[in-house]
Prior knowledge:
Layout: E1 9-15, E2 28-30, E3 32-46, E4 58-73, H1 79-87, E5 88-96, E6 102-112, E7 121-127, E8 131-148, E9 154-161, E10 164-166, E11 184-189, E12 203-211, E13 214-217, E14 228-231, E15 235-243, H2 248-253, E16 259-266, E17 283-298, E18 307-314, E19 324-330
Amino acid sequence: MAEHIGKFQEIGFSTEDERGVAEDSIDKSAKxxxxxxxxxxxxxxxLSVVATVADIxxxxxxxxxxxxxxxxxxxxxxxxxxxxxxxxDVTTTEFEDGASEGLGVYEHDxxxxxxxxxxxxxxxxxxxxVKQLKVSNCVVDSLSLSVDQDDIISSDFSLVGTVAEDDSSxxxxxxxxxxxxxxxxxxxxxxxAGLSNSNGYCVKSLDIDIETGAEPNYCSDGNYEPSDxxxxxxxxxxxxxxxxxxxxxxDLYESDEPKYMRITIVGDQDLVDEEDEDPKYxxxxxxxxxxxxxxxxxxxxxxxxxxxxxxxRAAYNEDDGEMVTAKLINxxxxxx
Length: 336
């Protein structure tokens, strides 16, 4: 028997050199909280029942794929693997010291590849001593980042993958860099350049929801699994809760005026940790180049500070030729 608890479930990721071809080893073992990623099977009923009141003749398997959800703290290195699929294009630069020597700290700049077939992941999953697999051709269907005042910033994401094979890769865990609410800054401006000089809002809670429109592509090729998984509809929304101190968001709700938005999360642990070098801090930054206030509401509490709830939707900015960009600063050398 191999009884175990959820703490003995493990998950890790590698970016695939060739789309749909599983990698041999784990690039990043993720310190998850919960992970439910396993094969899902679709079956159909055979209703050709004769001379009996029984409802079906049999069940037939018609398709399968791997999918599921993972919950974990937002870790600045792990989230880059998700971004590599969500965005598709990344440029990486290593910070250098005064002698032009690498510091082992990197800036990764992500842009959206408009191809519906972007960078894929191999997902490594271990269920205690019961089963261990690696699943190729994995994509991120959705990613949610949640900020609350009383908790570590969290990330919840859904994955879809196609083919699995048995695996015996070793999981190993690095130092992780996480964030709390005080690390968050949210800005609005009328131009991208204006974001640097604008003041941040005092936000009580924030949720970023990213959906990629993952669509398994089935065809009659002799396999139960989809031939591929496409991503054809990138959608981003942001929910904010903040004190109702002015009518900025209310006015935007009542109009069609777009804004630029920047969400920055910067930790307080120095990644360089050398006395004679400028510090580099774990950073996640998301720029939305055209946002609208989709919904707005405020409460009417008698005995508490009045707050407002704001829902923001991102759109494609034709002038800038982009919808969203992202930046990470961490110790991961590459996401390619």
